[in-house]
């Protein structure tokens, strides 16, 4: 098979190579998937560049997310799964077989049935963003009748946070930075879309809800003033992304608001919570509640450019096509 891989950290063009290598065979409890589309996330370029502080112990095929069809199963897996369309999550977490390859091998629970009406593009876009959004939203209880603020509503996590929150019965406000991104957030179903650069941004969100139940936060330091302005007892601000400089918390203001802070890194989320997220995402997919973002496509030979595009903040979703 053809696959992208790297064995050291550094710039994408320097360390990523596309090679011919042996097709993997599924072991006990595993399935092999013919990958059709590989989703690229910030965690992928951060791992490859060394931004996470860890270097690979051997060669690594990158990318956690993807979509394709199961074409072989290992011992202990029902053979009826062969031929099933699936979406993949955390394929490269502690394993060499990421989705930037024509075939990948994953534990069977990480190959989730993809409904007939859902495209491979949508399937490859789920994984890290949708699982992260779910954890941010539901770690502190159900959302029916709740009010949610999603910052960065046009990003992949923000997009799925809006859609999952609406699917669960919440009212949703979101912040964005441009008219183009406002259109994406509105299309995802947000009840209120605010440009955070607007001097009246805090007032607009405050009119929508004096206090919110959840804040799904992409930039805690930059947005904390807004978050605290609409927080009170029962508000949970959930941060899922790091910034160049760690924020300084205004402890007294946080105390006065009686706000709770939660931090999410998907690799450390308990297995039971991940399984809960997968069940809910499957339910939302079946209900037609999840949609794809605009896609920027690259061929496998352009995998370095694909990772660079994500690092530069390309709007929508970056995918690597694998046929």
Can you walk me through this structure?
The protein has 323 residues and is α/β, with parallel strands linked by helices. The protein has 2 domains: 2-126 and 292-321, Medium-chain alcohol dehydrogenases, catalytic domain (Quinone Oxidoreductase, Chain A, domain 1, Alpha-Beta Complex), CATH 3.90.180.10; 129-267, 3-Layer(aba) Sandwich (Rossmann fold), CATH 3.40.50.720. It has 11 helices and 15 strands. Strands 3, 4, 5, 6, 7, 14 and 15 form a 7-stranded mixed β-sheet that branches. The two termini are 12 Å apart. The model has no long low-confidence stretch (mean pLDDT 97).
Oligomer: single chain
**In the CATH hierarchy, what is the superfamily of the largest domain?**
Medium-chain alcohol dehydrogenases, catalytic domain
How far the N terminus sits from the C terminus, by CA atoms, comes to 12 Å
Q: Please give the CATH class of the largest domain.
A: Alpha Beta
Task: Give the helix/strand layout.
Layout: E1 2-5, H1 12-15, E2 17-20, E3 30-40, H2 42-49, E4 65-73, E5 85-88, E6 103-107, E7 111-113, H3 120-125, H4 127-138, E8 147-151, H5 156-167, E9 171-176, H6 179-187, E10 192-195, H7 201-208, E11 214-217, H8 220-229, E12 236-239, H9 251-257, E13 260-263, H10 271-286, E14 295-299, H11 303-311, E15 317-321
Parallel strand pairs: 8-9, 8-11, 9-10, 11-12, 12-13, 14-15
Antiparallel strand pairs: 1-2, 3-4, 3-6, 3-15, 4-5, 5-7
Helix pairs in contact: 2-11, 4-5, 4-10
């Amino acid at each position: 098979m053809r696959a992208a891989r790297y064995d050291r950290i550094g710039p994408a063009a320097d360390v990523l190579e596309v090679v011919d290598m042996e097709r993997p065979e599924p072991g006990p409890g595993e399935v092999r998937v013919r990958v059709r589309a590989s989703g690229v996330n910030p965690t992928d370029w951060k791992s490859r560049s060394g931004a996470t502080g860890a270097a690979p112990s051997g060669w690594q095929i990158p990318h956690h997310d993807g979509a394709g069809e199961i074409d072989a199963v290992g011992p202990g897996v029902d053979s009826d799964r062969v031929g099933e369309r699936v979406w993949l999550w955390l394929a490269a977490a502690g394993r060499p077989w990421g989705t930037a390859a024509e075939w990948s091998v994953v534990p069977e629970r990480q190959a989730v049935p993809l409904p007939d009406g859902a495209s491979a593009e949508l399937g490859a876009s789920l994984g890290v963003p949708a699982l992260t959004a779910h954890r941010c939203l539901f770690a502190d209880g159900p959302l029916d009748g709740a009010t949610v603020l999603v910052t960065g509503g046009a990003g992949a996590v923000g997009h799925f946070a809006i859609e999952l929150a609406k699917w669960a019965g919440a009212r949703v406000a979101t912040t964005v930075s441009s008219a183009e991104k406002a259109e994406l957030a509105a299309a995802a179903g947000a009840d209120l879309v605010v440009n955070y650069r607007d001097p009246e941004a805090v007032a607009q969100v405050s009119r929508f809800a004096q206090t919110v139940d959840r804040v799904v936060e992409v930039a805690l330091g930059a947005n904390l003033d807004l978050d605290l302005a609409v927080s009170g007892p029962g508000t949970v601000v959930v941060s899922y992304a790091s910034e160049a400089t760690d924020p300084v918390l205004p402890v007294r203001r946080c105390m006065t608001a009686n706000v709770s802070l939660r931090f999410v890194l998907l690799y450390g989320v308990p297995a039971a919570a991940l399984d809960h997220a997968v069940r809910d995402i499957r339910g939302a997919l079946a209900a037609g509640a999840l949609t794809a973002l605009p896609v920027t496509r690259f061929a496998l030979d352009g995998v370095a450019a694909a990772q660079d595009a994500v690092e530069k903040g390309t709007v929508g979703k970056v995918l690597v096509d694998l046929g």
